[in-house]
Design a protein that fits this description.
Layout lengths: L20 H13 L3 H14 L1 H17 L8 H13 L8 H14 L5 H15 L16 H5 L4 H8 L12 H12 L1
Helix pairs in contact: 1-2, 1-3, 2-3, 2-5, 3-4, 3-5, 4-5, 8-9
Length: 189
């Protein structure tokens, strides 16, 4: 849920050219979502020039957007944006090259395929758990040598290798020879 405007400190801040900071923050995100690169860059630059604090908010929004708004299915967007953020930190404020990392991040995000599934999943879990509509389930296969109940049930490494470490969507043709060798060693012991 959004912070009430009376509690949001950015509602009381204006940028270098007189824009309300909360509106710049919102416009940055909405422009990236819509792929409006030039406006997103103008807003980002206004934030960047206004203050170190507003520059930091710009980066925090870009980092959130990399998870919340974009997705190619490869899940690499957060890694790229975080890497650009870390590179920008190596240059002091006032160094002209520092801005390039923000430009690249905005350009990257604005041009990406958009996918809000992660944000929708985040909101769904908060709502169904908070309302009590859905609660976590602890299945029998989770009770293994790593849990108190699993240990009390006598579940050991063999149980873990045959049940607790099972995976779905396994890499086809993966090398299972070490698993088989482990099970043979445990069976012989």
């Amino acid at each position: 849920m959004p912070v009430p405007h009376t509690e949001d400190p950015w509602t009381r801040v204006t940028s270098l050219r007189g824009f309300p900071a909360d509106e710049l923050i919102s416009t940055l995100q909405k422009s990236v979502r819509r792929g409006l690169l030039e406006n997103a860059l103008l807003v980002a630059r206004e934030m960047y020039e206004s203050s170190g604090e507003l520059e930091e908010v710009m980066w925090s929004r870009l980092l959130v957007m990399s998870c919340e708004d974009v997705g190619s299915g490869a899940f690499t967007e957060p890694v790229v944006v975080d890497s650009l953020y870390r590179m920008h930190e190596r240059l002091p404020r006032g160094n002209g090259d520092r801005w390039l990392f923000a430009v690249h991040a905005v350009r990257f995000l604005a041009g990406r395929t958009k996918d809000r599934t992660t944000d929708e999943l985040a909101q769904w879990t908060v709502h169904v758990l908070g309302s009590g509509e859905r609660l976590p389930e602890i299945p029998d296969y989770a009770l293994d040598m790593h849990t108190r109940r699993g240990q009390e049930m006598g579940r050991d490494i063999t149980h873990f290798l045959t049940e607790g470490s099972k995976v779905d969507n396994e890499l086809p043709g993966r090398d299972t020879s070490y698993r088989e060798r482990l099970l043979a060693i445990l069976g012989a012991g």
